């Protein structure tokens, strides 16, 4: 097995981004697992892995990763929105609403505002 280096982790992270864009979330997770094992505090890698879990319909792992990101970055509007989508997909609409509203309050993008349904 080749020796790990910071460059290898960067290459794997970038390759995981490409796999996610190409709709191969499971391949992205495989590349990100060793990156996160080597750099557990890397929030960007965790956020990317959370997105990959979500796209692979692995909702519980996605939820846990988004929660780790939010523990570190409670003002991350995208992570709140994505956690809301994850909870919504898991039929936990009441929990999702809280995260949609936090996302919209932090960053009033149209998608976030629509999901927050402040008018309801």
UniProtKB/TrEMBL annotation:
Keyword hit for Electron transport: no
UniProt cross-references to SUPFAM superfamilies, sorted A to Z: TPR-like
Keywords: Repeat, TPR repeat
Domain of life: Bacteria
Any single Pfam family the record assigns to this protein: TPR_19
InterPro entries assigned: TPR-like_helical_dom_sf (IPR011990), TPR_2 (IPR013105), TPR_rpt (IPR019734)
First and last residues of every TPR repeat: 77-110
The protein, known as: Tetratricopeptide repeat-containing protein
Source organism of the structure: Actinacidiphila paucisporea
